Every structure is written in C-alpha cells, then in structure tokens.
C-alpha cells in the first residue's frame, strides 16, 4: 500500500489582510504635515497614487490627507514634486507597530 502526500497549496493572500495584523498607536499630533497650498499647483499629485496606505485622497481637485493609517514608508516625501511634505517619524512608541505572522 502506498501513501500519497498532497503538496500544500499556498493560500492566496491580500495586502489588506496582512496590514490588518498591524496595530496603530496614533498620536494626537500628525507626524506628517502637508502644505495644501503647494499641492494646488501640483500637476500630477503622485501621492494619491503611490501612498500604499491611501492616506492621500483627491476630492474635487484638492488633496485630503489623513496620517492615522500611515505605514511610515516615506514614499510621499520622496515622490512629492512640490516639496509640500514635512515628514517626521511619530514620537517614540507611537505610530504603526508592525506584526508579522
Ligand atoms: S509615509 Fe508612506 S504610508 Fe505614510 S503617508 Fe507617506 S506614503 Fe503614505
């Protein structure tokens, strides 16, 4: 008698599911400040497409920003052509706490 061992199939996963494992300890003070006036002159607004946490939203041509779900990746600071982003890490112990499971 032979025993057949089935290979394990990798479960598909979604980015949202992985991010939901993380915990945020949100500070009252935003660690990122956006100069919305500079954003008005920005022709491409790359932050609205490249922020992985979708912290930037375009509403009727204006940028809306919320820092609460920030992943602290720094992408917005790098891609902003207007230098409209004042970027700092949250104060010690605040912000995202990554959980790897
Ligand atoms: S640091 Fe990264 S996650 Fe946070 S707002 Fe900027 S692009 Fe989004």
Show the helix and strand layout.
Elements: H1 15-19, E1 23-25, E2 32-34, H2 36-40, H3 47-50, E3 56-59, E4 62-65, H4 75-79, E5 85-87, E6 95-97
Antiparallel strand pairs: 1-6, 2-5, 3-4
Q: H/E order of the elements?
A: HEEHHEEHEE
The percentage of residues in β strands lies in 15-25%
Helix content: 10-25%
Distance between the termini: 38 Å
Q: What's the short version?
A:
The protein has helices spanning 15-19, 36-40, 47-50, 75-79, and strands at 23-25, 32-34, 56-59, 62-65, 85-87, 95-97.
Describe what you observe in this structure.
This protein has 101 residues and is α+β, with helices and mostly antiparallel strands. The protein has a domain of 61 residues: Alpha-Beta Plaits (2-Layer Sandwich). It is 19% helix and 20% strand. The chain has four helices and six strands. The strands form three sheets. A two-stranded antiparallel ribbon has the order 1-6. The chain has a two-stranded antiparallel ribbon with strand order 2-5. It is elongated. The structure holds iron/sulfur cluster. The site of iron/sulfur cluster has 12 residues, from helix 4.
Task: Kindly list the characteristics that best describe this protein.
single chain, about 100 residues, alpha+beta, Alpha-Beta Plaits, two-stranded antiparallel sheet, binds iron/sulfur cluster
């Amino acid at each position: 008698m032979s025993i057949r061992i089935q290979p394990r199939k990798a479960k598909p996963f979604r980015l949202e599911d992985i991010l939901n494992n993380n915990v945020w300890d949100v500070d009252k003070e935003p660690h990122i400040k956006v100069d919305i006036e500079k954003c008005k002159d920005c022709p491409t607004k790359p932050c609205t497409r490249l922020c992985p946490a979708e912290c930037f939203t375009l509403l009727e041509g204006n940028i809306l920003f919320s820092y609460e779900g920030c992943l602290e990746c720094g992408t917005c600071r790098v891609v902003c052509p207007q230098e409209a982003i004042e970027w700092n890490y949250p104060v010690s112990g605040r912000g995202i706490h990554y959980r790897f499971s």
